[in-house]
Amino acid sequence: MTAHLAALAFKAHDPLRLARFWAGVLGWETADDPHGGVTLLPDPDDDTGFRIRFVASQEEKTKQNQMHFDLTSSSWEDQQRTVAGALELGGRPIDVGQGPDAAHVVLADPEGNEFCVIEPGNAFLAECGFIGALASDGSQEVGYFWSRALEWPLVWDQDQETAIRSPHGGPKITWGGPPVAPKTGPNRLLFELTPGPGGDVQAEVERLVALGATRLGPGDGSGGSEGSEGSDGSGASGGSGAVAMADPDGNEFFVYAPAE
Which of 172, 190, 191, 212: CA 20 to 30 A from 133? Predict the structure, then answer.
């Protein structure tokens, strides 16, 4: 039994607006969302492997996100087209300390969520699609945890930096190693897992706890608890019966039953 990464959830003040922005950037289509919010589905030719959900939340963004997209480019012109398109849709350039000589471009979406448009010729992302990576702040331990949790192999493990990738392709998920920024509040981007074939939520929760995760309850900063839609109205718990958890670095995620 293995957890499946079903979705990446964005907490948003205006889920529809944010979904329209990312649909325009990625070329993805909206779909019915069984748990509330707005869902984007990958293009049929896209190997991303998970959906993106946008759920209502009143939480303010007060810090740089723990994870962000790295979007790839096939040429300098392609990079410029991606940047121009994102700006036209409501994105903006931001400075996160990348310096004036950086070949990648750092942008923020309309609610301030950071993402990068990577320069062409990046060897680390050469085999990946348009979403090259979910680049994350995190420890080596948390990279090992997610490798075991999803049963995705490690594709990088050097100098306490780790990366995993689905055997079916899609983006890499990377963790930059120390120093890891102190966690000062709930994350705005959250993983949503479902049990593998033949599994159930409680059994999957027990397996993840054995791997090093912890269960969260009301007041733990998860934005929700088992069987709730979230005390802040975020709906990021994946719906009724979802279990709020945290990985070894304290990053919140949810396990929920697949939609019927």
Answer: 212
Taking the whole predicted model, whether its pTM rises above 0.85 is answered as yes
Report which DSSP code applies to 130: S
- Sheet containing 154-158, strands listed edge to edge, beginning at the edge strand earlier in sequence: 92-93, 105-108, 114-117, 67-71, 131-136, 172-175, 161-165, 154-158
Question: pLDDT value at position 33?
Answer: 87
Tokens of 219: 């007041």
Both tokens of 94, joined, read 């931001």
| ∠ Cα 174 226 214 (to 5°) | 45
pLDDT (tens digit, 9 = 90+) per residue, 59-104? 999 999 999 999 999 999 999 999 999 999 999 999 999 988 899 9
What is the CB neighbour count within 10 angstroms for residue 120?
14
CA distance 183 to 231: 20
User: What is the tens place of the pLDDT at every residue in 158-171?
Assistant: 999 999 999 999 99
Which residues, including other chains, have CB under 8 Å from residue 178's CB and lie 6 or more apart?
A: 139, 160
Amino acid at 205: V
Q: From CA 38, how far away is CA 54, in angstroms rounded?
A: 5
- Within 8 A by CB and 6+ apart from 154, the residues are 143, 144, 147, 162, 163, 164
